[in-house]
Input
Amino acid sequence: MASVKKFQVTFDRAERERVARFRCEVLGHVAPPPPEGFATWDECDRSLPPGRRGAAFACTDPSGAGPRLFFQRVPEGKTGENRLPLDVRVGTGLVGEERLAALEAECTRLLALGAVRVRLLPADDHDESCLVMRDVEGNESCLG
Output
């Protein structure tokens, strides 16, 4: 049996394009080119039935190493803790003050993109420090 080589991570979001563009900026991802026969994604979107227009947005890792991220519109809003946080690892291999400095630098960058800082989880006997953040739609994830 062959192993899976590529996969997509799908997120249900009310503001799918806003969140997707935020994640593109956070991760350095890009929107893929529009399908063949369309000059732009807006043109492609206008060709869809009214109920499907603006329903989805995707972004990809330009290096091809990471998964495609797919954001689809859902009618219901966020009601509790998101079950698939998209944590960003910026302090890998760093400890103490050096790690905190890396976390704070990335936090500052994300605040400018519309994220909200929630709290710092300090290092303990088992884990290094991480920063809990909220994206532009209020979904929590960690900078670690």
User: Anything to note?
Assistant: The beta strands are 8-13, 56-59, 68-73, 116-121, 130-134, 140-143. The helical segments are 16-27, 41-46, 96-112. The chain has a mean pLDDT of 88. The longest helix spans residues 96-112.
